[in-house]
Amino acid sequence: MSNSDMNRFIIAKVSFVLVLMLAEAGQAVDARSDPTAGNKADASIAAQVKEFYRGYINQCNAGKSADDFLKARRSFLTPALLDAVRKNEKICASNPNEIAEGCWDYDPFLCAQDCPETSTTTVTASAKGVKAAAQVLMTYSEPKAIKVQLLYSNKGWRIDDVRCPEGQSIKENAK
After folding, report:
1. What is the tens place of the pLDDT at every residue in 117-149?
2. Which single residue of 4, 16, 86, 164 has CA 20 to 30 Å from 136?
3. How far is Cα 42 from Cα 131, in angstroms, rounded to an integer?
4. How far is residue 161's CA from residue 168's CA, in Å, rounded to a whole number?
5. Average pLDDT in the chain
6. Distance CA 49, CA 120 (A)
7. Most distant CA atoms of the chain, gap in Å
8. CA separation (Å) from 80 to 32, 73, 140, 159, 175?
9. Residue 14 has pLDDT above 50, yes or no
10. What's the rounded Cα separation, in Å, for the pair 1 and 38?
11. Can you tell me the distance from the alpha carbon of 39 to that of 132, in angstroms, rounded to the nearest whole number?
12. What's the distance, CA 108 to chain centroid?
């Protein structure tokens, strides 16, 4: 085998190995960014929802406005959910002396008028495709389970709706 043949052979082998390595690296990147990546995605979603609720409840227990928290943490929420919350705020502001028709008389993220006794929450989650569901268990006089729906986008997982145990949903109630 001549030197030029040997060089072509080595280049072909190295190229083949590089292609295999790049393909494996691409698969690894895809698995990490895949919102359906199983238990890791579920744990990540649960941690994100827990972080949101921990901050939200701490803000509530400190007597601070939920609006300030939502403005600072809007990256946790989808634009559609933020729009639903803002729509309700406008309805409520239209008649500040009494509860206007369509104005929620409860906190839609806590599904209650009062803050929970503690910011300790238990969150479980599961993802399927670009949708996920989480359950938030909070402590009041009795445990309360709230269902949180999330959507995955190029910005990651975001809360898309909250459904209270009684059935009301933020987005449905804003219609």
Report:
1. 776 688 999 999 999 999 999 877 778 899 999
2. 86
3. 11
4. 10
5. 78
6. 12
7. 94
8. 27, 15, 29, 10, 12
9. no
10. 51
11. 12
12. 16
